Write the C-alpha cells for this entry.
Amino acid sequence: MSPRRVLTRVFALGITAFALPGFAEVTLSFGVYTRTKPTTMVEIYRPLLNALESRMSQELGEPVRIKMRVAKTYEEGIEDLVAGRIDFSQLGPVSYVYAKQQNPGISVLAVETEGGQKVRDGIICVHRDSQIQSPHDLKGKTFAFGDELSTTGRYLPQAYLLQHNIKSSDLGRYDYLRRHDKVGTAVGSGQFDAGAINDETFSQLVANGAPLRVLVSYPVVGKPWLARNGLSQRHADALRRALLGMKDPVLLKPLEKDGFLEGSDEDYASTREAIQNNGAFFQ
C-alpha cells in the first residue's frame, strides 16, 4: 500500500474514532447563588465538581466536564435553573420550592447531610458580649436577616420568632443584608443586635475571630441538589450516583457537610408551610 493511501486510511480512521459516542465530551453546567464572596464559592465547590467529573467519566465511559456558574442573587440562581440555563444546581430549600412552583419538571438528585442526617442547624447569633440571653430579649432590638428568599436567613428564623410571640413590629429595626457572611459581620461589629445565619458561615466567621455566639438554633432540612427539567435520565442518574457515593471528607469539608442522601419533594413540606405562614410575622 502506498504511503499516501496509508495516510488517507489513518486520517479516515481518526475521524471515525473521534466521531464515535465514546469519544464525545459531555459538558454540564452547575449553578449556585452566592452566599458569600464569589471567589470563596468557587473555592468551596470546585474540588467537589472535579471529583464528580472523574466519577461520571468513569461510569459513562466518556469525558465529562462541569462548568460552574455563580449567580449574583438568589433570584438569578433560581431563574437559571427554571429556564434551563444550567443542568444541575444546589439551592436552598425555599429557593427550591419557588423553582419547583415555576417549573414542576425540576427534580431532586440528592440532599446534603450533616452527621448522616438531612437536618442541619440554622442559627440566631448575637455578639459574644451581648446581654441578650433568650429569644424574648430580642423585643425592641435590631435584627439582621439574610436574603429575602433565604431559608435559613429569612423564612425559618421569622417562623421561630413568631413561635416566640415576636413579630416584625416588635423589633426595634430589621433589614435584609442578602449574604450570610454580611449578617455575621454586621452582628459582630455591633451594627445589629442579632442576626440569622447558617451554621457553616457562623463556624467560619468564629474561626476567623468574629466575636459571635449562638443565641438559639432551629432545624433546617439540608440543601437539595437539583436537576433541570429535561436533563437526560442517563446523566441525571450518573450525577445522583456520584453524589450519593461522595464520602471524601476533604472534598466535603468546605461545604461543612459529610455526604448526601436520597431526597424527594416531600422533604420540603415544612419549608412550604413556613412560606405560606410567613405573612403572620408582618401582621
